[in-house]
Every structure is written in C-alpha cells, then in structure tokens.
Amino acid sequence: MAARRQRGAALLMVLVVLAMLAGGLAWLVEDGRRQVDDVRLLHQRVQVRAMEQAGLAYASQALRDPGWRASPLFWQALRGQPLDYDFGAGKAQLRVVDQHTCFNVNALLGEDGERAERQLRHLLGDDMAAERLVDGLADWLDSDSDARLQGAESAQYLRQQPPRLAANQPMVDSSELNLLLEQDASRQARYPMLCALPFTTGWRLNANALGLEHLPLLEALYEGRFSRSLLSRIVTGRPAAGYVDAGALRQALGAVDDETFARLSEGLLLNSGHFLLQLSFEEAGRTLRSQFRVEALGVVQWHARVPAQQVRVLGREPAISL
C-alpha cells in the first residue's frame, strides 16, 4: 500500500514537472518570438530612417534643380501624385503635398483677418457646426480672453478633462484642430482643407498645384465673386508643365479684362515654398508612415521655373506603424 502511494506521488511529481516544463517552454517560445519581432522592428526602423533621409535628399534636389521644373512629372508630383519605389523585399512611396492648396488658419490673425474670416465661413458653409469651428478657431488663436458666442477661451478649457489652455498664438500644426472645444481626435481628418502655415498674411493658392477638387477653396478665396466656370479654367487650361509666369496664366483664362485678372492674381501664386513630404514603407506585411514639413527658401512666387535656393525641414511627425 505504501509503495503504491509512493508511486502515485512520484507520478504526480512527474506530471507537475512536465507541466512546468511545458509552461516554461511555451514562455520561452513566446519570448523568443517577441525578441525576433523586436529585432525585425528595429531593423525596419533603421531602414526607414535611412530611406527618410534618402527621400528628403531626393525632394530637396528636385526643388533646387531648375532642370526638374521643365518636366511635367515634377508638377504632377507637386499635385500629389505618389512616387512608388521597390527595394529588396519591400516597397516605398513618396508623396509631396503643396500647402498652398488649403486655407491657412493663421490668416485669421493677420491684417486682413476679417476678410480671412469671411473666406473661411464661405468655405465651411452656413450652419451651426461651421459657426462653432470659426469662433473656436478665432478664440484659440487670438491673444485676448473674450470668448465668442460659439467659441471658448482658457477659462473654459481649464474646466475640461484634461485641463488645458487656449494657444493664444499662431497655430503650429493643424493637429491643434483636434484640441478645440469639444476635443475631437478626428476633427483634423474631417477638415483636410485647413492647414497651418508659419505666417499670418493673406493666404494664396498655387495655381500650378490645384485640382478641380479645390474649386470650393477658390470660390471661398474670392468670396463667390467669380463664376465656377472661370475659376475652373485655372485648372483645366493649365499646361502639362505648369504655368511658367503670369502671362501663361492670363492666356489660359481667356478674354478677361485687366481688373478681373488683377483681382484673380491677387489670391494666386505659381511657385510655392511650403510642402508636406509624406513617406510610407512596406515590408513583410508591416507599414511605417512618416511626414515632414518642408520649406523651400528663395522661390519666386510668379516665376515657376525659378528653383528654391535652400530647402529646410521645419518638423517631423513620428513614424506610425500599421
């Protein structure tokens, strides 16, 4: 009887040991997988950083080289056409977004702030949501503490969770739209026509970067004073290699008088200095995306063939793994 009990206890001990070993092996396997994934992710991030530098160098060269500006491919890229590249076991995509194809919210702080506000209301429409956004933006940016009817100042923001202050200064990045009362993480994505450029003077649109989808912006820019058919000719009459100068733009517009052309050209430019450089890298089923804010210095706004003298990076959004 005692021997039988000893054998039973021994068998139980063996089973316990086997269970512990099995659990330990499973943990070791899982830990090993995690370490392999970490190494792969580190390898990919190192590779991405190298490709980011290559993408920045490529974009900088394109913006500074006058030869590139004679090619229709250059202007297609500046209108947002993605450039795809294959490398080893993966692929990369580079996309340039001209930021003179959106409404600069910091224009609300400029000398023509009242006009900019009218343009913004024209763009957003005449409803309560638009009213709240316009008033909220104005209060977020201005330096006073007087809240508008549909806006909010620091006193209201301090009562939120988490508490915060109104910026009371020009917007640095359009992601600040998400912080307006009420805080909404999807607001920036819902208003892609709004952007934040580092100046408060009147906003202009790049006639060489616009598409027909930007007609609402053109209508808002001129506060509805020009017909859609005339404004659409800015896009449809554009040569493949873009408008070289003001003369080329006027020719595309057809028979317009001097006053009309002067008013049209007041809100346009042909050579931009502010861009978003968006990069994505896909390898082994994993995608990493990053974005840079880039400024081209020394461009001549009404001479599209004059290249940038210098290109500098203003900021970088961290790489996002998908």
UniProtKB/TrEMBL annotation:
One of the GO BP terms on file: protein secretion
Keyword Nucleus: no
A single GO cellular-component term on record: plasma membrane
Chief localization: membrane
The protein's name in its UniProt record: Type II secretion system protein K
Domain T2SS protein K first SAM-like: 101-198
Sorted UniProt keywords: Cell inner membrane, Cell membrane, Membrane, Protein transport, Transmembrane, Transmembrane helix, Transport
Annotated TM spans: none
Stated family: Belongs to the GSP K family.
NCBIfam families: T2SS_GspK (NF037980)
InterPro entries: GspK, GspK_central_sf, T2SSK_SAM-like_1st, T2SSK_SAM-like_2nd
Compartments, record wording: Cell inner membrane
Organism: Pseudomonas entomophila (strain L48)
Gene3D superfamilies linked: EpsJ-like, GSPII I/J protein-like
Key word Transport present: yes
Any single Pfam family the record assigns to this protein: T2SSK
Superkingdom in the source lineage: Bacteria
